[in-house]
Amino acid sequence: MPANEPLIHSDPEIMGGTPVFVGTRVPVQTFVEYLERGHTLDEFLDHFPSVRRERAVAVLELAKEMLLARAHAA
After folding, report:
1. Taking the CB of the first residue and of the last residue of the chain, which one, N or C, has fewer CB atoms within 10 A?
2. pLDDT tens-digit profile of 51-67?
């Protein structure tokens, strides 16, 4: 997946502006909530086949980078 390819999109015309995975109507918040409840990545992908594994993993990597950068800045 190219580094400059967008992962998340927010558009008032799609789900009222809720951030979704690009090319889908699947909210990123739904992904986070699945993981919070103890579901696996595979379970999420089974329920939302429009989300590509590479994109879901890239979102997790981005979240990790942001958290680590914030921790180092403190």
Report:
1. C
2. 999 999 999 999 999 99
Residue tagged 């015309």 (tokens) = 13
Task: Provide the whole-model pTM.
Answer: 0.85
* Under 8 Å between Cβ of 60 and 32: no
Expressed in angstroms, the distance from the first to the final Cα of the chain is 31
CA 49 – CA 24 distance, rounded (Å):
10
- If one looks up domain 8-73 in CATH, what number appears? 1.10.10.10
User: Encoding tokens for residue 43?
Assistant: 């379970």
For the record, the structure tokens of 69 come out as: 């950068």
| Cα angle for residues 67, 22, 41 (degrees, 5° grid) | 60
